[in-house]
TrEMBL record:
The lineage of its organism: Bacteria, Pseudomonadati, Pseudomonadota, Alphaproteobacteria, Rhodospirillales. The gene is oxyR. Belongs to the LysR transcriptional regulatory family. It holds the Pfam family HTH_1. Keywords: Activator, DNA-binding, Transcription, Transcription regulation. It comes from the Bacteria. It comes from Rhodospirillum centenum (strain ATCC 51521 / SW). One of its GO terms (molecular function) is DNA binding. This is Hydrogen peroxide-inducible genes activator. One of its GO terms (cellular component) is protein-DNA complex.
Length: 312
């Protein structure tokens, strides 16, 4: 048994398909299938149930996959330690980012990263929070930028900045004439929210309350879709402050929200066993440096920020 065999087993368990697993491992399907048969012969029991359409781990296979992932993590950690000993800020860093943050933050981060740490390469994966956390726990990501807390002791993190929400309303909407809007204003408005699974959906509902009848008919998969609907006059929504630049050109009026809950805390999270702590520290410092100063220095108790007000 060797690390290559363990990588094959994990790939088959993740993809549930020999063809896709072999592509992920960069080997031919007969090679992967043959190595699996040899491993099963050595262990004396099948690791997967097979049909022409799917592959599913047996009870033994599920246990072997768990041990295989742990063994591969340790092997990767050994290689990472060696790389870190040479240069902790060199090589790829697999970073997950939530979709309501990635398009607005990463264009600020990446150019600065190239300037400060040219040897450090971010490999980005954009997904919903729950999926990013699962990938972190499966060691498919090294860290993630999210806007919620995490459960369990297997992940740790650091707060980077507090991002206020702004009310986005169409030109000519009654709220467009206000200097700021209140929770009551939003609860009476025709608010549009993201689909289930987006943390911004739950955070927006926490400020606005349940949508009015029919107001939850549109559950957009992206913030850009919500913005397009609002600019077309179909309702109002909340947008994070980093998304604000340029929205006025799309027929939107942005107003700060007078509510202590109208914000989110962006965090960097990772496994405590991840060996390249200096790379994570450098990334955290860089993110804090590229966001507006009032976000980096803000707190959840100060959500109506000068950053938000300056956009009026």
């Amino acid at each position: 048994m060797n690390l290559r065999d363990l990588r094959y087993v994990v790939a088959i368990a993740e993809h549930r398909h020999f063809g896709r697993a072999s592509e992920a491992c960069h080997v031919s399907q007969p090679t992967l299938s043959g190595q699996l048969r040899k491993l099963e012969d050595r262990l004396g029991a099948p690791l997967f149930e097979r049909t022409s359409k799917w592959v599913v781990p047996t009870a033994l296979g599920q246990q072997v996959v768990r041990h295989a992932r742990a063994a591969l993590e340790q092997a990767d950690a050994i290689e990472a330690l060696a790389r870190a000993a040479r240069d902790p800020l060199a090589g790829p860093l697999r970073l997950g980012v939530i979709p309501t943050l990635s398009p607005y933050l990463m264009p600020l981060v990446l150019p600065e990263l190239r300037q400060r740490h040219p040897g450090l390469t971010l490999v980005l994966w954009e997904d919903l929070t729950a999926n990013l956390i699962e990938r972190l726990r499966r060691h498919e990501l090294d860290a993630a930028l999210i806007a919620t807390g995490t459960d369990g002791e297997d992940l740790i993190g650091v707060d980077l900045f507090v991002e206020p929400f702004l009310a986005a309303v169409p030109t000519g909407h009654p709220l467009a004439a206000r200097d700021w809007v209140s929770e009551d204003d939003l609860q009476r408005a025709d608010m549009l929210v993201l689909a289930d699974g987006h943390c911004l959906r739950e955070q927006a509902l926490g400020v606005c309350g349940a949508p009015p009848p029919g107001g939850d008919d549109l559950r957009a998969a992206s913030l850009d879709t919500l913005v397009s609907m609002v600019s077309a006059g179909y309702g109002c929504t909340l947008v994070p402050a980093l998304a604000a630049p340029g929205l006025e050109r799309r027929g939107l009026v942005l107003r700060p929200v007078d509510s202590f809950g109208a914000c989110r805390t962006v965090r960097l999270v990772w496994r405590p066993t991840f060996p390249r702590q200096k790379a994570l520290d450098a990334l955290a410092e860089l993110v804090r440096s590229v966001v507006p100063a009032d976000l980096a220095d803000g707190s959840p108790e100060d959500c109506v920020s000068s950053h938000a007000l300056a956009r009026d």
